[in-house]
Amino acid sequence: MRILIAPDSFGDTMSAVVAARAIETGWTAARPHDEVVVAPQSDGGPGFVDVLAARLGTRLTESVHGPLGAGISAQWLLDDATSTAYVECAQACGLHQLGGSPTPRTATRADTFGVGELLDAALRHGVSRIVVGLGGSATTDGGAGLVGALGGGERARERLRGVELIVASDVENPLLGPTGAAAVFGPQKGADPETVEVLERHLAEWSVTLNALAGRDVTAAPGAGAAGGLGAALLALGGRRVSGASVVAEATGLEDDITAADVVVTGEGRFDAQTLRGKVVSALHGRASTLGAHGAGASTLVLAGQVSLSDAEIDAAGIAGAHAIVDVAGSVEVAMNDAENQLTELARRVACDFRAG
User: Fold this and answer.
1) From CA 228, how far away is CA 95, in angstroms rounded?
2) What three-state secondary structure class fits 352?
3) Global pTM value
4) Per-residue pLDDT tens over the stretch 288-338
5) DSSP classification of residue 181
6) What is d(CA 58, CA 296) in angstroms, rounded to the nearest whole number?
7) What is 108-136 written as a DSSP string?
């Protein structure tokens, strides 16, 4: 059988590349005669560059400012064949760049200046297209840092004139309000209730500048709240939002891999109701059910850190099976601290059961 292994990242515990390798090791240990194709995926968040670099382009490293201003090294991808730069915001302003756990102080201080420096580097290379992957950021500055790094509002927009700017994100939240960047994602970035109110107020003030820059109201646009409002800034600078998972799928030739697959094995940190609303796993399953096995439809198996959906919900989604690392590891602590080995063992067990039935 032909098996396509195409996971997303498992939060902070494993990149998509590491997770794919772990699943491959476990699966082939149980079913050595299967033909296995490995194609890690991303929705634009952490690992976006790593996933794409496995199939295309050249990695370039820049010295930029991290989310709290310290100098860091960040990578981006240059695809000369299409004159395209792929930039991952988490490389410059990700939570992992904080140097510790997020706090209310980091939530208010963290900015996207380093992401702007990556775009500046891409522009200096003369690219005609820039794809910015959003997700995993420590910031809620509405992209103010990025705009500043590019020279300010009008200067930034002028520099990007004639460049196709793609905002790669599967987040649909607006910039402001109860479903906006501060309210929904602020707590994940260390913000307590009081800090969320401060962040919301700052975003509302900044939105006036963004709307004037865009000549329209970008605050309510789907994806404006992605990466702490960085989505809104990129939209104001002329960007166009597309699904991050679709960007990666197209760039890596995923459709051909799915068409040839009998089984698609995917996964992520937590398999829950949000997964079924447009994330990598959902997108893969949708394609597998119609394209896989040369049009007959391929089965989808999900391996996740934790599974919070019921068997009935999983069946209703048409997914052949969903399995949790924590069930193999015995505890969340072991599942996180020994994630790669535990995922390998889970994949082995799932492959054994698949062979049996």
Assistant:
1) 12
2) helix
3) 0.88
4) 888 877 777 899 999 999 998 889 988 888 899 999 999 999 988 998 999
5) I
6) 36
7) HH---HHHHHHHHHHHHTT-SEEEEE--S
